[in-house]
Amino acid sequence: AMPRVSTHLHIALKLSNAICIKDLSSFLLGNAYPDCWKTSIENSLCYHYKDDLSSLCNLERFKETEEMNDFSFGHYFHLWVDNRILGVDVNDISKNDCLICDMAVITPIIQQLKQLKVTGKKYQSMQNILELESEPMPLYLIPEDKKKRYDAILDMLVDEFTKEHFNRV
């Protein structure tokens, strides 16, 4: 299963700590853009640059189609993560565990993003992010070792991305 918007934002924040991103808000909004909650399968496939539900996101087609700026870079990183996450074993980390970890990190960022006046694609992205606030939060504490494992998975993805795209070792 693909990660939720919360996980995409969490990993995008981690990437923003690893590389220089001029406009963090645009990058994060771009990162949230593909995951529309209230859209058709056709639109979702279009935003994810997929031919069908079983195909990978077409990163080459994305790069040919989109002009690169911080928003589209965020969108691109989302698609890259969607493709790469399929090969990652998350062990016994549940969707609820992920949500709890993610929200602890991204809630202050969401509060900052809510201050922005956004239109167009960024408005749609903001709606995707605001949907998180209406999602029921699981009420339990995650064991520290599970949190560390989850963090390590996100760090590994960021490391792979920076090696692949910025030749960082």
Characteristics of this structure?
single chain; 169 residues; mainly alpha
Question: What's the short story on this structure?
Answer:
The chain is an all-alpha fold and 169 residues long.
Structure, described:
It is a single chain. The protein has 169 residues and is mainly alpha-helical. 63% of the residues lie in helices and 0% in strands. It has 8 helices and no strands. It is globular.
Question: What coarse outline follows from CA principal-axis ratios?
Answer: globular
Describe the main β-sheet briefly: none
Number of helices: 8
Poorly predicted parts? none
Instruction: Please give the radius of gyration in angstroms.
Output: 15 Å
Number of strands: 0
Strand content: under 5%
Structural class: mainly alpha
Determine the N-to-C terminus distance.
29 Å
Mean pLDDT: 94
Indicate the percent of residues in helices: 55-70%
Element-by-element helix/strand order:
HHHHHHHH
Write the layout of secondary structure elements.
Layout: H1 5-18, H2 24-32, H3 41-47, H4 59-65, H5 70-85, H6 95-113, H7 120-130, H8 144-166
